[in-house]
């Protein structure tokens, strides 16, 4: 029983090691650099970090919210460390 398991394990390793590794993509991707350049260079009054659309706006708002709450928490912790509670 143990010998059969070892044999199966070795066969699996042999098959895995004999597979060829390719670096080419399975499907070709289209080049969208020109479209992105056109989108980001048009003058529509938006800052560049928001020109990507809804995802960029959402990511910006989440980042700013976390930054504000993080800064407030740091200030709170600094005050609590500077003025420790007195034992009763």
From TrEMBL:
The keyword Transmembrane applies. It is found in: Mitochondrion inner membrane. Its main location: mitochondrion. It comes from the Eukaryota. GO terms for cellular component: mitochondrial inner membrane; respiratory chain complex IV. InterPro entries: COX7a (IPR039297), Cyt_c_oxidase_su7a_sf (IPR036539), Cytc_oxidase_su7a_met (IPR003177). Keywords: Acetylation, Membrane, Mitochondrion, Mitochondrion inner membrane, Oxidoreductase, Transit peptide, Transmembrane, Transmembrane helix. The keyword Glycoprotein does not apply. Belongs to the cytochrome c oxidase VIIa family. This is Cytochrome c oxidase subunit 7A2, mitochondrial.
């Amino acid at each position: 029983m143990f010998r059969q398991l070892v044999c199966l394990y070795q066969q699996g390793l042999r098959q895995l090691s004999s597979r060829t590794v390719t670096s080419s993509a399975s499907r070709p991707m289209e080049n969208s650099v020109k479209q992105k350049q056109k989108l980001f260079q048009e003058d529509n009054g938006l800052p560049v970090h928001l020109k990507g659309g809804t995802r960029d706006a959402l990511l910006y708002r989440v980042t700013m919210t976390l930054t504000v709450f993080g800064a407030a928490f740091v200030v709170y912790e600094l005050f609590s460390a500077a003025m420790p509670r007195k034992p009763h």
